[in-house]
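pasting for ref
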Amino acid sequence: MSDPKAALIEVLALASSTDPAVLKQANSQLDEWEKLPDFWLVLLQIAFDAQLSLPTSSSAASGHEQRDAIRIQAIIRFKNGIDKFWRSRVVARVAVTIPPESKQAIRSLLFHCLREPNRTIALQASVSISRIARLDYPRDWPDLFTTLQ
């Protein structure tokens, strides 16, 4: 991926296709990228980017609707990946680890949900905070409650 964010936006747009073949290909690509260390941080950045640059191959949907669909795809994919990838694991003989500095950036970025106007994205991000807190508090996220206050 030369520009990881642009490539990920393009594939997330395809992941909301109604064509089963396109959807399968997009999900397959996303499954492959899950193994990359910065995938999760970029996914979250896309979810909170209200001014998201849309792919050039835009569908008939309005820009606002497509932007929201991509952002919702990103936050749901992020939330669903927490239980699977937040702790290091081996997938297809490859160790998948989210680097500690990425985890810290993710923890900080998640609090953007407090100012997120899209209720679906805000809710999914809140669920993500609770899942990460369950795994990381107090050892890896000691300032969680101070930050919430």
